[in-house]
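Methods: example folding runs. The two proteins below were folded one after another, and each record is reproduced exactly as written to the output file, sequence line first and structure-token line second.
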Amino acid sequence: MNLFGKTDVGRKRENNQDVFYLYQFSSKAGFAIVCDGMGGQSGGHIASDMTCTVVSQRLMDGSQRILSGDGIRELMVEAISEANIEVYKRSNTEPGCKGMGTTIVLAVILGEQVHLAHIGDSRAYLFSGGRLHQLTRDHSLVQELRDQGKISDEEMKHHPNKNMITRAVGVNLMVDIDYLELSLEPGSKLLLCSDGLTNMVPDEEIAAVLRYQSGETVCGRLIALANGAGGADNITVAVAE
């Protein structure tokens, strides 16, 4: 297993509020985190950086639990919940941080098993058998409207409130965390990304890059495509292969 990641401010934003972190315990075990902050000029970056730091530290402290395969889900939930409380407390005590929050998509990989946890609209995809599969479901207003049959898939792409998320780290004292576990086939790739990629680049173009590119080239190419399409937001990509 190899982990690669890259982040870019994009072409429209002055600051990058995305943060990612990669860590390998061994050639078969590691984790990747992507966070996309929100809230003011600096609050979003503080929220995403805090969350990434707290979660990564908790996972490294719990390395034996990960390597033994015992209680990985519980460890992930504990780590994100702790980060949620820390961001929430700071948001409510520092005026410049009021209302800040962040998405998170977290993957812990142990051998052929992948454990995923996420909040918000940063996504995880699996590229396997020549096809791209979206693994996470956005916690967003447009996703709820689509689930209710009120808008179409095409309308989701252009809806004026498409960036409004319904769940985030640090906004409330308690937060619901979605969890998924799956097995990886040999030669498959796992992609974590912020919506700065998915709002700009269609799935079929993402799949083409994952099909023909590898290593660090994947991250750079996907970011270049997002910027080429306008780069309306910060763009972060992490790939496990």
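Second run, written to the same file directly after the first:
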Amino acid sequence: MILCEGARTEPNYFRALAQDLGLPNVDVDGPALLKDLPDRTCAAWADDFEEVWCVVDEDERPEEIRRLRERLARLQPGEDATSRSTVSTPCFEFWLLLHFEFTTQPFYGMAGGRSACQQVILRLRGHVPDYKKNDASVYGQFKDKLQDAQRNAERLDPDASSPQTEIGELVARLQRLAESQR
């Protein structure tokens, strides 16, 4: 089960990825409000999901993300179930940017100006000029560069506050799952 905080971009991406990998049993849901994710995670476990991944954007709210991780760590899903938060800083579009380039440039919102995520999207449009949030074909646009994104994500400093993404871990988990089912 993949619970996405975003309404369309992230669910569209992960639904298409799961379909591409031949994983019909991977359920993707969104939007999930950050404050509700642990409760929704418990509900998902009740439906017998072995793994629940919560995909969220940091969006310049590190304290909320810290509290989410703490709540997820305290949950007791059962001996065979796991729950993980998968955070992108500042937003999911940073993962998409990694399909085209490696960067450690920090992205921060500016008072009265562009948000951190808007800055990432602007840079992403340097590679994909017609990129739009909520596009149903987002995975298809980036699929051929998925390995580049994974390599670039692995190169990031895990202790850096921005930019950062854990999406590569979820993608790798889905790939291993697909491989084990072949």
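Comment on the second run: The longest strand covers residues 82-89.
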